[in-house]
Design goal:
Largest sheet: 3 strands, antiparallel
CATH superfamily of the largest domain: Winged helix-like DNA-binding domain superfamily/Winged helix DNA-binding domain
Shape: elongated
Strand content: 5-15%
CATH class of the largest domain: Mainly Alpha
Number of helices: 11
Pfam family, one: HTH_HVO_0163_N
CATH topology of the largest domain: Arc Repressor Mutant, subunit A
GO molecular function, one term: DNA-binding transcription factor activity
Distance between the termini: 41 Å
Helix content: 55-70%
Number of domains: 2
Length: 205
């Protein structure tokens, strides 16, 4: 069983390491990284591939997706952040990671909320139907009205929603481009949405 787990971890790391090698971060890998062992380099390269394709992922998601131990993930993320290759922000109870100098603060907040199920569902629903009401959103998402209200308040505080007269996205174009660009890193619903919307936008962060 352990051999199988280690094999899946190595396969996952190699896949994201290949992405990292093909599309490196702004800035070169540090000499310190090159001096470390092969496993450390492979793990570091995997994180370099993962963060740009899954921007805004929080620590636990990154750790689990890459099949890393907690201490292992913390060590390599710290090294990459110290080298100026990635940056992180605190979002409520989560620390989220981004490639350095790629996104502004509003993009980071938007990506953080797009990585939460209910806010993302609300954003997709409002992009499809800007006239959707709180009751419409609750019915579509299969959640309670208070759940929608709480998520709406969070989105408003983040500068992404205006509740003056119903629910209106304040940055629909920005949210649309982020959903389309990173749909594969969200869920199947986002991918289906992006398939319909991709022809409407072009985004090159």
């Amino acid at each position: 069983m352990t051999d199988g787990i280690d094999g899946r971890k190595r396969e996952t790391l190699r896949r994201f390491a290949a992405i990292g090698a093909a599309a490196p971060f702004v800035g070169a890998a540090s000499a310190e990284s090159e001096d470390e062992g092969g496993d450390a380099n492979e793990t570091r390269e995997a994180i370099r591939g993962y963060v740009p394709t899954t921007p805004g992922a929080h620590f636990s998601k990154l750790r689990d997706d890459l099949r890393l131990g907690t201490g292992e993930a913390q060590y390599h993320l710290r090294k990459l952040e110290e080298a100026g290759e990635i940056e992180s922000t605190k979002d409520a109870d989560y620390r989220r990671y981004f490639p350095a100098a790629r996104f502004d603060d509003l993009d980071k907040r938007a990506l953080g909320y797009l990585r939460r199920d209910t806010p993302r569902g609300m954003v997709l629903a409002l992009l499809r139907d800007p006239a959707a009401t709180g009751a419409d959103l609750a019915a579509e998402l299969g959640v309670s009205r208070p759940t929608v209200s709480t998520a709406a308040a969070d989105l408003e505080a983040a500068g992404l929603l205006d509740r003056t007269d119903g629910y209106a996205l304040t940055e629909p174009e920005r949210l649309l481009t982020l959903v389309v660009r990173y749909a594969d890193s969200f869920d199947a619903e986002a991918v289906a949405f992006a398939d319909d919307a991709a022809s409407l936008v072009a985004y090159d962060p």
